[in-house]
Amino acid sequence: MKHILDHIHALVPLSPETERALTDCLTPCRFPRRCLLVEEGRRTGAAFFIERGITRSYWLVNGVEITTSFAAEGSIVFSMDELYYDKPSEEYVETLEETEAYKITLDDLRRLFRTNLELANWGRIIHQNEYRRLHRSHKERLTLPAAERYAAFCQQFPDVAQRVQLGYIASYLGITLPTLSRLRGRK
């Protein structure tokens, strides 16, 4: 629980009562590498707090995987479609390493957001941060050359850049693997 609570406390202070309300809803789980936590077209009914490990989210478009994000220690992963719109997921979330996580049902997460101001504020902040990341990523894809996109990625996500296969990073940046390999060779 350390990475998760540290990450939450870095964004918003939690009272001991709120910590307890959250941790009472969590179930520890372990997942092997390449395990799908969320699948397109399905409902998971849960969110996962990542204690150890890393995941990637991706779309499958015409048989091609397009990486949309990564999540490491302290992060939470879930289907936004399911949590907010009660619809099956439009993306996949898979573990890239053996992963230790804590599972919370979406019903419990929604209830905590409704009834606990501290957790509602945390939820708002993580979504503001995610919107900012998406906005920055979109702007960089449209305005920066590949080398600058990769440099920005390494600056924003240094740990991810060291732990994730280059093909996933290339997909996230919207460049080819040979291009990314050339960029890395120039460093």
Structure characterization notes:
This protein has 187 residues and is an alpha+beta fold. It has helices spanning 2-11, 16-23, 80-85, 106-115, 117-143, 146-156, 158-163, 166-173, 177-186, and strands at residues 27-31, 36-38, 46-52, 55-61, 64-71, 76-77, 92-95, 99-105. The chain has a domain at 2-116: Sandwich (Jelly Rolls). The chain has 9 helices and 8 strands. A 4-stranded antiparallel beta sheet has the order 1-8-3-6. α4 (106-115) crosses α5 and α8 packs across α9. The longest helix has 27 residues, at 117-143. The termini are far apart.
Helices and strands in order:
Elements: H1 2-11, H2 16-23, E1 27-31, E2 36-38, E3 46-52, E4 55-61, E5 64-71, E6 76-77, H3 80-85, E7 92-95, E8 99-105, H4 106-115, H5 117-143, H6 146-156, H7 158-163, H8 166-173, H9 177-186
Antiparallel strand pairs: 1-8, 2-7, 3-6, 3-8, 4-5, 4-7
Compact overview of the structure:
The chain is α+β, with helices and mostly antiparallel strands. It is built from nine helices and eight strands. The protein has helices at 2-11, 16-23, 80-85, 106-115, 117-143, 146-156, 158-163, 166-173, 177-186; strands spanning 27-31, 36-38, 46-52, 55-61, 64-71, 76-77, 92-95, 99-105.
CATH superfamily of the domain at 2-116: Jelly Rolls
Strand content: 15-25%
Name of the level-1 CATH class of the domain at 2-116: Mainly Beta
Percentage of residues assigned to helices: 40-55%
Find the CATH topology of the domain at 2-116.
Answer: Jelly Rolls
Please name the CATH architecture of the domain at 2-116: Sandwich
Instruction: Name the structural class.
Output: alpha+beta
Strand order of the largest sheet: 1-8-3-6
Mean pLDDT over the residues: 95
Count of alpha/pi helices:
9
Model regions low in confidence, pLDDT < 50 over at least 5 residues? none
Q: Tell me the number of strands.
A: 8
How far is the first residue's CA from the last residue's CA? 37 Å
